[in-house]
Design a protein that fits this description.
The chain is an alpha/beta fold. The chain is 48% helix and 11% strand. The chain has ten helices and five strands; from the N terminus they run H-H-H-H-E-H-H-E-H-E-H-E-H-E-H.
Length: 199
Amino acid sequence: IGPQENVIISTTLGATRWGLRSLLILEDRVRRLSSPTMLQVDPVLGVELHEEVFHTHMARSAESYTGFSRSREWTKTGLENVNRLLGEPDCHLLKDRFKGLPGIMVAPGPSLRKNIHLVPEFAKKGVVCTVSHVLRRLIEMGIDPDLTVAVEANALAPHFDGVQVEGTSILVSENTAPDTIGRPAKQFWVIHDGTVGKW
């Protein structure tokens, strides 16, 4: 298709945001999407699109900065963890493992205090997943979560110290903090999301 004078693009703002984040495009091309022309055509949509473009720029800048500033640390950590995680299964093997069972994700938040008392009864019939920040509380209630998410590269010792983790499987990445990888968990499941993982 050759150059067109009039092009209509139909999409959602969410799709635009994630599409922009996924594409490696020049900044001036992104800015054109929130140009004054769009404001003249549809002022409301123009303002929304302009805000989405701004947030996209901010998100990409933050992601780039994080990658540049921590890449050396993450690679070093990944290499330290290699021996421990080499024989552990990839998290993709979890697919359909609990198919047909009800599940709950327990995480810190405003509703946790109101609802945490419901978890022990649910655990008798369903799959309980949690994050490292809530693990201690669940174990104190007599619940060994089926899966604990601990992909954080920073040390999570305050959440694990003194906690019996032998009854839970822990989801980690290759650059999860080594003190987490060193715990005697029932099983580790690994998200390979970096250079070392690809190796």
